[in-house]
């Protein structure tokens, strides 16, 4: 059953704007993934877009269900915490794996390892 007709017009407008902004930011992050050339450039755009876009969409969900049920609905905050924590951690793991692979294969110019540089001096 759809409860959207029960949502006041002011809340519907704010929820719609938050959803539109969140989906637009996520879409921009996706275009960054397609447009950028190297792996190291590609990992940043979707990570930032996904985190901010998901945050705005979750804010819209919190507002919508809080107004509909006339009580605070905050279980979406758990989803936001999981997305906020896992997305950057995944980015760091992927980037470290790619740096390790590129250093061992010697295929791409990557910065020298700081630990190796200190040992050589």
Automatic annotation (TrEMBL):
Organism: Sphingomonas colocasiae
InterPro entries xref list: PhaG_MnhG_YufB (IPR005133)
Bilayer-crossing regions: 12-36, 48-71, 77-95
Keyword Membrane annotated: yes
Entry protein name: Monovalent cation/H(+) antiporter subunit G
Pfam family, one: PhaG_MnhG_YufB
NCBIfam families linked to this entry: CPA3_mnhG_phaG (TIGR01300)
Gene designation per UniProt: mnhG
Keyword annotations of the record: Membrane, Transmembrane, Transmembrane helix
């Amino acid at each position: 059953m759809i409860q959207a007709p029960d949502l006041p017009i002011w809340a519907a407008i704010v929820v719609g704007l938050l959803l539109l902004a969140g989906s637009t930011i996520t879409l921009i992050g996706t275009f960054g993934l397609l447009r950028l050339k190297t792996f190291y450039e590609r990992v940043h755009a979707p990570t930032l877009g996904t985190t901010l876009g998901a945050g705005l969409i979750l804010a819209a969900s919190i507002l919508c269900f809080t107004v509909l049920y006339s009580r605070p609905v905050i279980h979406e905050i758990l989803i936001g915490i999981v997305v906020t924590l896992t997305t950057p951690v995944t980015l760091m793991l992927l980037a470290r794996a790619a740096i390790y692979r590129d250093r061992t294969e010697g295929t791409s110019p990557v910065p020298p390892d700081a630990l190796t540089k200190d040992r050589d001096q």
